Amino acid sequence: MRTTLSRRRFLRLSSFTGAGLIIGLNGVDGKAFGQLVNLSNDAELVGVTPFVLIDPKGGITIYNTKPELGQGTFQSIPSLIAEELDLTLDLVTIRQSGGQVELGADQFSGGSASIRTSYTKYRKVGAAAREMLVTAASQSWGVPAQECITENGKVLHKASNRSATYQELAAAAAKLEVPKEPKLKDPSKFILLGKRVKRPDIPLKSNGTAVFGIDVEVPGMLYASIERCPVFGGKMISFDDSAAKKVKGVQQVITCERLIGKYRFEGVAVLADNYWAAVQGRKALQVKWDYKGYDKFSLTAYEQQLRELAKSEGVVDHTKGDFDKAYAEAPTKLEAFYETPMVSHSPMEPMNCLAHWKENNQIEIWTSTQVPFSIKNSFSKEYKVKPEDITVHVQFNGGGFGRRLYPDYVHEAVQLSKKAGKPVKAIWTREDDTQQGPFRPMTFSAFKGALDANKKPVAFQHKVISPSIGASSNPNYDKTKTDGGMTEGISEQAYEIPNMKNLYVHADMHVPLAAWRAVTSTTLAFSHECFLDEMAVKAGADPMTFRLSMLDSKQSDTKRLLQKLKEVSNWEKPLPAGWGRGLAQWEFFAGLAGNVVEVSKKGNGIKIEKVYAVIDLGTMVNPDMVEAQVEGAIVMAITAAIKNGIRIENGKTIQSNFHNNPILRITETPPIEVHILAEGGEKIKGVGEPGLPPLAPALCNAIFAATGKRIRRLPFDINKI
Amino acid sequence: MAAITLTVNNKQHKIDVDPQMPLLWAIRDFVGLKGTKFGCGMAQCGACTVLMDGNPVRSCSTPVTAAANKKISTIEGLSDNLEHPVQQAWIEFQVPQCGYCQSGQIMTAVAFLKKNPNPTEEQIDAAMQGNLCRCGTYPRIRKAVKRAAELMKTKPF
Which of A10, A150, A521, B94 is deepest in the core (most CB within 10 A)? Predict the structure, then answer.
């Protein structure tokens, strides 16, 4: 699809007034993405994505295309452009993009992908703009461009003592040809990239002025609270709203559909002129549901089914050598079975959305979301409007962790606004957020491992038994094939084991499932790296030495990572009596990180004394933000390892709020020491997720070292080992 | 419905609301200050923490009527330009990630340091343990509260 965009419309989109320099990247159809074009003087603009705007009468605006969830893209993405323009961020207005077609399909935050997919692309945008501004100045002054420098939003020619602001030069620069391959800055000259630059959103988040989705108001809006079936899969029979309508402030009671993955769940919404009234009205609703037998569902019984399914062969995910023969012939063998729970995302900002379906069939949406581009496109199909008639105002997200990849809560608000004929803000309660899913699925894992006569690993098998995130979204999911989303990482580890056969066994599930920060690696790293520890114990080897021995033949990132962990954790230094030390690493699509955890016995339980983390990045934007992400990932991983998780009985989620679905507290948070491997260069790995997977296995391996007790099921009670 | 006068950040607001309405929604939707956040609705997470006569309370579980004739302080009233030592320390240590729980974290820290200007690390943990953060900013909260206590010695607020 080619998108034609008039200059006037583009200017409206970007709130940009007057003639000036606009640099974009051509090709929203994906074919020519990255080709720089000059949009400034085009009457008709075709398929362009403008990121930096220089207004002769105003300021310099840079778009952030990656929704800010706390991971720091509000600083890191604009910095890629600003760096090449020699601009510090205090000279720039940062605007959050809203999925505009013109700004590209990659307007989402997920997969730890923001920096690794944007680093060079956005630097080129800034470099091209700089080159044009310099050329404009040099032509106007009659001096060689090479003699001009840029700093603080100005072009300077020191020999003739001349200077001009970018704004003054913008109109002339706009008339120039856009350089196809602008020269990128020498990294040794960087003022932003790779530096501990303070985040521009932090002051806003320290005085209450940061606007999250839940904070937006428009005149005439109604608040909604929505009653949904407590049993997953139930259907509405009828509802009685007579008592609800008597609550003062309640205006309307209407139905809506929650679209999540392949599911459509019905709800009854109470709309009122304030949120509290909407909640009171909802409590007074009487809704009859047909549970359709789903109230017989028990997670305990389902887990037993997974254990039974583990006996089936499954489909092959990955093979190497001849596993069956090597395993049969090996002198030393071991098997183990590991189990993990479903967990909730529970971002601190509950799901919410303000939507306004206007009389002209234009839809305006204000929300916290990870996926503005996808909202415009999928909603356009669902509601039969043009993508450009949907405006998404992306707010600061009060946490995402994968939950806000799913715009189910946006669908509800959009439908309610259409039916109500007014702007509607729907806010989920914490109970809604905890009980309605989607959840990270559990994975169960059956392992076989074998050692040769020299106690070297000779055969290895990881069989994953689980429901599927993919099947939850895709009605045409093919159960006869392996599922890379559910075997994530198990065949990607650098360990050299000559014979491997990894398998997948699919289990059906009717509860909506979702990606969660670091996705399936959060459960598979636990089982995989704990079982490797079991093999090390069987071999009588030190767990670090055992792993390094499987990385002997060539240099690898994993080997470097383990060597760094060994060094920073003082791996070989003896620990006090009653202490234990555990190790794990994990490489997957998002990146690579490892932990050493130290624990001590405390009463009947365990205290986490210290967590050492190493993350492998190559090139990075902001070391302080990397440390923050790894610290946060470790805290989230400890919650997932030792707190309740989600249980479903009689078809309903048992947990409802933080009292029975707790998250880690400050008192439970161990000291965390983060080390970053970043030597620069072409390689760029993800930051947001890789810090999470190694924690649970490193912790459980440490507990084994301290107590001799092998933990094969998460969650576990850390106070009763 | 009840006509109530709320004193928020030294400013009086006359509102007419359900007397059972939690103070949180009165502050957010009737006074119009959005810095105080809804997290759980049952005093479990601390995102809604405000000060009532200087003491931290969970506004999501405090009926608005209980706040009449009391002095309410919210994040917006802490300083004009981020001068409060707690805010300064929060910026210095780059504490917030998503930021949603941070108004509550900061208000809890402010009330705590007023009562205990020389806290130990254990006391900081104990004071802050009722405020949940899903992003896991706890290691930085620890450092920032400690730093704020130091800053307050030279610059009382």
Answer: A521
Contacts of B90 in chain A (CB under 8 A): 202, 206
From the list A72, A399, A666, which residue is nearest B129 (CB)?
A: A666
DSSP tag of B41: S
Cis peptide before A715 (omega within 30 of 0): yes
Residue A719 confidence (pLDDT): 97
The pLDDT tens digits for A680-708 are 888 999 999 999 999 999 999 999 999 99
In this prediction the ipTM stands at: 0.98
Question: Cβ of A276 and B25 within 8 Å?
Answer: yes
CATH architecture, range A4-189 = 2-Layer Sandwich (3.30)
Q: How is residue A197 annotated by DSSP? A: P
Which amino acid is residue A542, in one-letter code?
D
CB contact under 8 A, A201 and B96: yes
Single out the residue of A557, A554, A552, A607 nearest to residue A579, CA to CA: A607
Domain with CATH 3.30.365.10 in chain A: 4-189, 213-293+351-427, 299-343+439-540+553-707
SS3 A579: strand
For B45, name the nearest residue in chain A, comparing CA atoms only.
A658
CATH entry, A213-293+351-427, from 3.30.365.10, 3.30.70.100, 3.40.50.300, 3.30.70.1070: 3.30.365.10
Three-class SS of residue A416? helix
Contact A500, A487 (CB under 8 A): no
- Pick from A491, A493, A502, A497: nearest CA to A463: A502
Strands annotated E in A153-262 = 154-157, 162-165, 222-228, 235-240, 250-260
What pLDDT is stored for residue B7 in this prediction?
A: 98
Q: How far is CA A524 from CA A303, A493, A521, A529, A716, in A?
A: 16, 12, 5, 8, 16
Q: pLDDT (tens digit, 9 = 90+) per residue, A44-72? A: 333 323 677 777 767 788 889 999 999 99
Calpha distance B92→B143 (Å, rounded): 10
**Domains of chain B, CATH where assigned:** 2-76 (3.10.20.30), 85-154 (1.10.150.120)
Structure tokens at A463: 């069989």
Strands A424-427 and A222-228: parallel
